[in-house]
Amino acid sequence: MKITFYGHASLGIEVSGKHIIVDPYISANPKASHIDINTLKADYILVTHAHGDHILDVEAIAKRTNAVIVSNAEIAGYYSQKGFQSHPVNHGGSWNFDFGKLKYVNAIHSSSFPDGSYGGNPGGFVIEGEHKNVYIAGDTALTMDMKLISMRTKLDLAILPIGDNFTMDVEDAIIASDFVDCDKILGYHYDTFGYIEIDHEAAIRKFFDKGKDLMLLEIGSSIDL
Ligand code: NI
Ligand code: MN
């Protein structure tokens, strides 16, 4: 499994020969100006919630690639009404895709589209694929529900928001990593806007002091699991 950071909360995941894009917000992110969305491969686009900083490039990528948009029932319905392929899920539900098993899990946040359309309730994803398991938290507060994830899945990587203001901060993300029982963390949802700028070295040190490895990737770079 290969995971690429495209800035903000945008990810690329390659697993079992399939290409997955998560929450694409790339074309309007000045920090990601070296990423061309027209070159991104996508069999699936996963959407955690309907906020503009998570859906901006969904339609452009889906139109070009014919990718299946996977999200909660309301977001999937919103895109299927526009003629896109979608697969609806909802909290607690799993589906065996050709890339692995995907589960939609709770997030504490909000979820309306920029045009005011109802975006259902926000979530995160647990992906079990190719003997590696990953949790993508989405935009969320720290929540006790995270403890449920480790009761079903032994994670190899937890992808957690750490930028504060709209989501968890670093300290809460450290507790979240305890809740999901995973000491390998990829931080996301930081630095994009003034509200969520963080001190990278301080964040890495705080995780290190708890025996945990926080990775902060350059935009466009990848890790192999
Ligand atoms: Ni959001
Ligand atoms: Mn966000």
TrEMBL record:
<dbReference type="InterPro" id="IPR050114">
    <property type="entry name" value="UPF0173_UPF0282_UlaG_hydrolase"/>
</dbReference>
<keyword id="KW-0378">Hydrolase</keyword>
<dbReference type="InterPro" id="IPR036866">
    <property type="entry name" value="RibonucZ/Hydroxyglut_hydro"/>
</dbReference>
<dbReference type="InterPro" id="IPR001279">
    <property type="entry name" value="Metallo-B-lactamas"/>
</dbReference>
<comment type="similarity">
    <text>Belongs to the UPF0173 family.</text>
</comment>
<protein>
    <recommendedName>
        <fullName>UPF0173 metal-dependent hydrolase SAMN05216269_110120</fullName>
    </recommendedName>
</protein>
<feature type="domain" description="Metallo-beta-lactamase">
    <location>
        <begin position="7"/>
        <end position="189"/>
    </location>
</feature>
<dbReference type="GO" id="GO:0016787">
    <property type="term" value="F:hydrolase activity"/>
</dbReference>
<dbReference type="InterPro" id="IPR022877">
    <property type="entry name" value="UPF0173"/>
</dbReference>
<dbReference type="Pfam" id="PF13483">
    <property type="entry name" value="Lactamase_B_3"/>
</dbReference>
